[in-house]
Every structure is written in structure tokens, then in C-alpha cells.
Amino acid sequence: MRLRFALALVLLTTPALAVLPSEQLSDPKLEARARAISTQLRCVVCQNQTIDDSDADLAHDLRVLLRQRLKAGDTDQQAIAFIAARYGDYVLLKPPFDRETLLLWLGPLLVLLAGGVGVGLYLKRRQGGARVTFTPDEQARLEKLLKEDVA
Known about the structure:
Number of helices: 6
CATH topology of the largest domain: Helicase, Ruva Protein, domain 3
CATH superfamily of the largest domain: Cytochrome C biogenesis protein
Number of strands: 0
Low-confidence stretches: none
């Protein structure tokens, strides 16, 4: 009973592939290539889902377009380049490192560095804050108050 329940949970947690039977190619090799390429392409509506995992209409259009390009004889890189040229590098789950995507790649590092500098400045200010100096009478009064508070 537990094994069946565990198996059911595992099956429920796997991603649902949105590729419709009508989209699939009759050639198993071409279909395998299309599936492999689909894992590299992002649904621009769903953002961090691949086009295979998305039920969005645009993802459907991208899957159909990809399969059309493969049937036309494109290599994997040509098909990816065609779709990226049409929809921009944002459609790629791993966009290239170039001038246009520089902020995308370096942004998290810049935020981390800015946070580190901010924490460093905070700690420096906290440690190097203004020192309070007391006159001998004030120091004696403070010690008297502290002893009374402890007692």
C-alpha cells in the first residue's frame, strides 16, 4: 500500500509535458531532436518553463515552429538561432554572454557585491561610532547607578 502511494506521489510531482500528439513528428529521430531542443527554449509567457512544459498558446506556436524548422532540414543550432532571432535571446534558457545580456549575467554578482559593501559600511560605522567620554564625577555616578541596578 505504501509503495503504491509513494509511486503515485512520484508520478504527480513529475512535470506535465504539454506537447500534444498532433504536434509530434512521425520521425522518432526528429521528434527526439525537437524534444532535446525544447529543453533549451523558454516559454516567454510562463517565463521559467520550457516550451515542452508550458500549456500557453505561444509555447504551442514555438513547438510547432521548431518542428517545422527541423523538417525543413535545419540543424539544431540553426533552429535555435532562427527562434532566437525571431523572439530575442530571452527565449533561450541559457542566453549567450554578450553586451545585451551583460546585466543579466552580472546582475546577481553586482547585487551581492553592493550588499557586501553595505554590510561592511554598516559594521564599520557601528564599531567606529562616537565614543562617549565621561567626566570623573559622571563616571562615579554611572558606576553607582549600575551597582544599585545589580543589587
